[in-house]
Specification:
By secondary structure, the chain is an alpha/beta fold. The protein has helices at residues 12-24, 98-104, 124-138, 152-162, 177-187, 212-229, 250-254, 353-366, 393-405, 431-440, 454-457, 472-484, and strands at 27-32, 55-65, 68-72, 113-118, 143-147, 169-173, 191-195, 232-237, 257-263, 269-277, 285-291, 294-297, 316-323, 326-339, 346-349, 375-381, 413-415, 418-419, 425-426, 445-448, 465-468. Residues 60-67 have low confidence and may be disordered.
Amino acid sequence: MTTSRSTPPRGGTAGAARARSAAREPRPAYQCDACGHQPPKWVGRCPECGEWGAVVESTVTGPTVSGRVVSSRMPSEPARPIATISAAPARARPTGVSELDRVLGGGLVPGAVVLLAGEPGVGKSTLLLDVAQQWAVNAGSPSLVVSGEESVSQVRLRAERMGTLHDQLYLAAESDLASVLGHLDAVKPGLLVLDSVQTISTTGTEGVPGGVTQVRAVTAALVSVAKERGIATVLVGHVTKDGQVAGPRVLEHLVDVVLHFEGDKHSSLRLVRGVKNRFGAADEVGCFEMHEGGISSLADPSGLFLTRYAEPVPGTCVTVAMEGRRALVTEVQALIGATVAGSPRRTVSGLDSARLAMVLAVLQRRTERLTLHDREVFAATVGGIRVVEPAADLAVALAVASGGLNLAIAPHLVAIGEVGLTGEVRRVGAVPRRLAEAARLGFKVALVPPGCGPANTGAGPEQMRVTEVTDVRSALHHAARASAE
């Protein structure tokens, strides 16, 4: 029986050592500056994108990622000490719309890309047409509005109604990306409004207009142009049925600012809520009012959410809700219906139905005089605002108790606090700011959670009597005493 022996590699151990040494030594590699393709050798024209003279030589340093060699090359701009870098290019310029500037953190930054999303008919185009007109008047550079959903005549009619006709405000109706870029070359605007990004398509990308591939390609191209030319760009986006921005999630990562435009069609109130902001706070809220002449900013919207009564009315209580960093004095109303057999209705408008059910269960269990398990309960806010934060629990409880007992609460009282399942009143945030807003509007008495009074926080309006309540029972007692005074 013969045994076969393996033949050693040609060159023996010396050849293997030379191979290992060559693998460790840097070797030339080539990469296209335009598309990133890495051909095996230098060529005059990139085989991937067809760009001439874009293939440059780089040095392979040895590390690999997913089996591919990672190459290094000279950066286009060297790293500098942070103290030597100017922050002037990132300074915001006011748009002339105060509430929008509040949400943006002072205004629009040249080269920044803003995505404004909202439901159809909420007023996105109206707001941005006003912004474009204000920019044309105050910024000293043209503004360009490109509509992919309306003709220029339709936009002109809206502009006449709003009084936003200006020589530096340009309009165009396009649905092709190349034509939009051509308008940018001709107008050279400082502000570009694109309504909407889902209607623009490019011939170099597959897919239907509004599809994932097209939206991603169009947004990436517009972001690149905005950064290169320093054009402040606002993109209008559609939303899905659940209120999220339509399209791929990468759309929100590509832009610098994401804003949501919210509002009820049956109410004149509109809210612009910041979701992402690379140049300022991401929790600001701007308030607007829709009317026949267009849209206007509401610097003091608290009056919209209150009802002035000649005499105190049972079933109402006032709280202070936080929308971002803004405190809004809001009235909560409750109506207790008749006793019914079976399951009574629990109807809410502007409130969280789950929290209302919890508050009703706490009142039923922790108070003696209230019987709510077999009675219909209707609860709502005033002015179309939606309040879902737990800080409104105490006001909801007092409004329900007031309606159930037919006892009116003093109109100069506000209630702030979260209600627990054991009936305790828990602490909430931003109590000094809430109290200051309530005192500014003339409220004299405030019920707050333990540890939130002036004696503990060191701050509180001098003209307001702030009382700390530990549970729902003590809150009802203090509310009744304040009403009797």
